[in-house]
Amino acid sequence: MGLVQTLLFELLGPSFDPRVGLLLAPLPVVLYFLGFVLAFYLYSETDIADGRGGETTA
């Protein structure tokens, strides 16, 4: 995650106001949280939560 943040700062930093850095600073935390939300959604909306392991009933 540090590499992505470093690349964003190097690519976008010179062309924007320094205040943009304040918006990019919490980016790793936001992506981490969205990852948990996506994982919970996929877990609750798929058959994994039902314990069927993916087989379908015809």
UniProtKB/TrEMBL annotation:
Keyword Transmembrane helix: yes
Keywords: Membrane, Transmembrane, Transmembrane helix
Residues that span the membrane, as ranges: 20-43
Name the UniProt record assigns to this protein: Uncharacterized protein
Species in which this protein is naturally found: Halosimplex rubrum
